[in-house]
Amino acid sequence: LPPSFRKLAGCTLFITGASRGIGKAIALKAAKDGANIVIAAKTAEPHPTLPGTIYTAAEEIEAAGGKALPCIVNVREEQQIINAVEKAVKTFGGIDILVNNASAISLTGTLETATKKVNLMLDVNVRGTYLTSKACLPYLRKSKNPHILNLSPPMNLSPMWFKNHCAYTISKYGMSMCVLGMAEEFRGEVAVNALWPKTAIHTAAMDMLGGAGIEKQCRKTDILADAAYCILTKPKTFTGNFIIDEVLLREEGVKDFDVYAIAPGHPLMPDFFLDVEEKKLSGSQQEGADGAKEPPGPVAETFRVIRGAMTEEFVRSTQGVFQFDLSGDGGGTWYIDLKTSGGSAGFGKPPMTADVVMSMSSADFVKMFTGKLKPTMAFMSGKLRIKGNMALAIKLEKVLSQLSSKL
């Protein structure tokens, strides 16, 4: 690539757990742009069963075109984190990007999880992520386009994700909560997002968990490296998002996912914490057209799906702006603009005068959008009041039926 297209050229990335697997893949992708990579990982001596050390990773990063700084960092030790951050700043002049990738996993039930394993997962996943973010933030705030990226899942509070490995789930959701909190706390200063794979990824950890032959059901680490690169090159206003690799790459125009498969055509194993509808997972707490923050809850969740499902075709065939005045939990004014190119939806007043204003309770609104309540029935039974263009209101019913397949 010509230097002007190398978006991470000269940027300094601090990546935990970068000696192998996903962390190293993200490092190598950035290294191709000529980035500086701080390899903050604990493997300094070759491990009996795991590939790679911070020094072999450094050689690969330099060979790919980046500059590498290997640092021995066990994220359980705060002083080691602080020392590495100081060394990074001294060597490269600052920190632009932090990738919290280091993670410990034990998929065991409550009675089968040894206390030292519980401590390990909470120390590495939650506390390590929190303390590394804390140590890097003063320097990130000075960067032009700073990002924190946590390798953690969208929070899905379905009990099925807790019952078999409660400690692991708590520790991973702890990382996701860091995203929720810090994205809001540093909004406008530092972007904070989470990235998670849609399918199992082939790493040493996966071999350990899945045993022989598991790799056929996995994708290569490249898919996460490409998705991470996409996120880290976006402006810092892109924040507070829980991103699924495949969903983002599809949005960016990637069509061929076979290139990421270890065994193209072989069925893939879905990753933890993801229900079948991944549409809910892309996009974030948006700001309304008038800058108002969306109140969280089922209504916001519904709008998140509506945004994900919008197509130019919808906008072309509908040509209307709908305002919803909702009462109850997560209520207030919301809108769906299916008139302006690209369409939009969210909390607050619509960007232009609404053609149709619908008033109803937020609970009925969610029912309507999930196909449990027909708009006609809602209208006839007095649950829905409509002002404005009735023909467009009727058109919305058609839009809803197309949408509810996605909801």
TrEMBL record:
MF annotations from Gene Ontology: oxidoreductase activity
Alphabetic keyword roster: Mitochondrion, NADP, Oxidoreductase, Peroxisome
Presence of keyword Oxidoreductase: yes
Pfam family, one: SCP2
Highest taxon above the source species: Eukaryota
SCP2 domain ranges (all copies): 312-400
Localization per Swiss-Prot or TrEMBL: Mitochondrion; Peroxisome
InterPro entries xrefs: HSDL2 (IPR051935), NAD(P)-bd_dom_sf (IPR036291), SCP2_sterol-bd_dom (IPR003033), SCP2_sterol-bd_dom_sf (IPR036527), SDR_fam (IPR002347)
Gene Ontology terms: cellular component: mitochondrion; peroxisome
Gene3D superfamilies attached to this UniProt entry: NAD(P)-binding Rossmann-like Domain, SCP2 sterol-binding domain
Cited PANTHER family: HYDROXYSTEROID DEHYDROGENASE-LIKE PROTEIN 2
NCBIfam families given in the database record: PRK08278.1 (NF006133)
Stated family: Belongs to the short-chain dehydrogenases/reductases (SDR) family.
Name of the protein this chain belongs to: Hydroxysteroid dehydrogenase-like protein 2
Organism annotation: Drymodes brunneopygia
The organism's taxonomic lineage, starting at the top: Eukaryota, Metazoa, Chordata, Craniata, Vertebrata
Encoding gene per record: Hsdl2_1
